[in-house]
Amino acid sequence: MPDNLRIALCTYRGNPHSGGQGIYVRYLSRALVELGHTVEVFSGPPYPEVDEGVKLSKVPSLDLYRSPDPFRRPRLSEFRDWIDVLEYGAMCTAAFPEPLTYSLRVARLLRARAADFDVVHDNQCLGYGILDVTKRFPTVATIHHPITIDHRLDRQAAPFLRRLSLARWYAFTRMQKRVSRRLPKVITASGTGSRDATAELGVDPARITVVHNGVDTELFKPLDNIARIPGRIITTTSADVPLKGLVYLIEALAKIRTERDAHLVVIGTPRPNGRVLQAIERFDVADAVVFESKIDSLRLAELYATSEVAVVPSLYEGFSLPAAEAMSSGVPVVATTGGALPEVVGTDGACGTLVPPKDVGALATAIRDLLDDGSRRDAMGRAGRERVFEMFTWLKTAEATAAIYRDVIATC
């Protein structure tokens, strides 16, 4: 087996400004290259940012959900083959076709390059085309968390008729269950993610290895030239969905503001007339909430540096890069006990405070107590950064991931 591996890293979408998939692909690929490996990223749109030494191979699609015209009707000239027809037809029936159609496209590309790679790493596509890839290459997949959990939480928050359309939208999770059970190796970012991959998807626990995600500690760090702004709270949410629990944080902010000054910076974009904007209007906090959308990493690091408390109000997280980024930035964290958040933040109260999901009163109290205690915030910030260096660096992630590559190569 060669010391330096040739890796195909596959991601069906790699948005660098929304969600964690683009971040994972960028930093994992960079760290693997720093270890001496060769990495080529195969991504559907929106395409990720990659660093020097990493090759990006774009896997075009119809890009039916692009901003600012999601669910668009493509021109006839845009259709190139039967996969494009399948993609558009599935969208017209309210399904989400990207994992399937990307997997078919990337399988076709890799079929023609059988001699170019030692291992293929699928980043939670879990489409049927990946099973074709496994016939030709040793294959590893990362499951950040089972999307069946998103479906369940969305259904619980939706009116009856909306639940019918959600069932169609999330129909791809049946495919992901079938594919994930047949993969030789699966990576999850936490022990919680490992248990949920077994419980939700039926993956054999013997084929799962936990590898924590990392944080860019050089980017996300305390900045001595930027002062913390009194009363500033920050939260990151990739989408206006029930899973992220932002509506509970909006209500908690309203409670806090009855006793002291506080304002919230949200890294993300709310849906027009969605639940978050409705909550902001209902609790009359429009003057205390600012949305920062599509910002680069430097701007995000600056916003962490200006914040006194970071909040992760999610009902579930398979890992939580925002919590780890905040800790690396020296910001104390208030998080729920949903999913893997206790694994990231710790349960001893040194780096942050944990509260039950959906408990607005506990959330408001925890945030207010930290805003009122500067020395406690400072101690938590220092402890959080130390925890990141001990557990959550991209070098550690890449080393552990490369070891899994070697294992699957040796056993295939």
Description of the structure:
The protein is of the alpha/beta class. The protein has 2 domains: 228 residues, Rossmann fold (3-Layer(aba) Sandwich), CATH 3.40.50.2000; 160 residues, Glycogen Phosphorylase B (Rossmann fold, 3-Layer(aba) Sandwich). It has 16 helices and 13 strands. The strands form 2 sheets. The chain has a 7-stranded parallel beta sheet, sandwiched between helices. Helix 8 links the parallel strand 6 and strand 7. Helix 3 packs parallel to helix 4, helix 9 packs parallel to helix 10 and helix 9 crosses helix 14.
Features of this protein?
single chain, about 400 residues, alpha/beta, Rossmann fold, seven-stranded parallel beta sheet, six-stranded parallel beta sheet, 13 strands, about 45% helix, about 15% strand
Number of strands: 13
Alpha carbon gyration radius: 21 Å
Secondary-structure element string: EHEEHHEHEHHHEHEEHEHEHEHEHEHHH
Please give the count of helices: 16
Q: Strand order, biggest sheet?
A: 3-2-1-4-5-6-7
**Proportion of helical residues:** 40-55%
Shape: globular
Specify the CATH class of the largest domain: Alpha Beta
Task: Return the CATH architecture of the largest domain.
Answer: 3-Layer(aba) Sandwich
CATH H-tier superfamily of the largest domain: Glycogen Phosphorylase B
For the terminal residues, how far apart are their CA atoms?
12 Å
Mean pLDDT: 95
- CATH fold description of the largest domain: Rossmann fold
Low-confidence stretches: none
> Strand pairing plus helix content: what structural class?
alpha/beta
